[in-house]
Amino acid sequence: MIKIEFSVIICSFNPDKRLLDRALRAICNLESSGYKTEIILVDNNSNPPLKEQEYIISYLNHFSEIKIIVESAPGLMNARITGIESSRGKNIIFFDDDNEPEKEYLIELERLKRKYPEVGCWGPGIVDVDFLDGVDNEVEEYARFIFQERNEIDVRFSDKKAWQTCYPFGTGLCLERPLLLKFIDLVKNGTYTLTGRKMGQLSSGEDLQMVLFFIKNGMAAGVSPGLRVTHMIPKKRTAHSYLKKISFGTTVAVPISQLQIFPEFGSDLKKDMYPIFRFSKKALFTMAKIYFIKDRIKQYKLISFIAYRYGIYQAFNKCIPKTVRFVVKVLKLI
Question: What is the pTM (predicted TM-score) of this model?
């Protein structure tokens, strides 16, 4: 049997054709130094199914390394598990359907893995955010941050338990298969509970959780400027309604990720937990400020403030105060 070095997994639900077409074209044309790769497109119950769409059929006909599988259960984590269990590679790479990697991505990964065997997960040190349909000047800087733009000039990695700025995000994340399978087992038995993006919800803490799991198990994690990805952002994702949701979703899962991987950090999280009355009062006050201030960036920061405390309550399995749930509903954050 031919050994496969990299399994590239792309999970998609009702994708924008412009984005997925560009992503697949770039992924199918990734260069390698002679080793075998496979590409797995996981259809997370799209309507119409991806396998029935002409441009997808064209890729399947022209690139033998691509296969498509379906996962009907909603949630990015469910789709990733299905992709992982269908893969055969020594290393797993996750690209979203809006990611366009540079053609030497795999070659750089191979070089990094030879030079730094202690690093178990790698991500791009260069992420260029491409606003396909433009973006309002008012929110451009914040949007670049929230869509994970980064410009590292050196290879950086660490093995510290606390989150480090050199730790990779989910875009273009490469993980060693054996330890990733152990993580998946813990997801399946309910030890780790984050599902990732699901329908209209934009929680994304499972990426953070995977990286921290590798740290917990003695591996380092890092980024390299030789790993470069373009993150394609269409107009609908720069809308105020979307940026509100993603500001909430990228923050709310952080405490859960941390506590489930490192229970010893629980005492620190509890210091940031507000009592019910104070949390309810603060949420109402924050909602009022959001309605009265015009600065959208300040609104998103206030939303993140609510999200972090909301996430702490969830991390400790405490009932979210009714007033806070009301505020989240009114602001349409979930």
Answer: 0.92
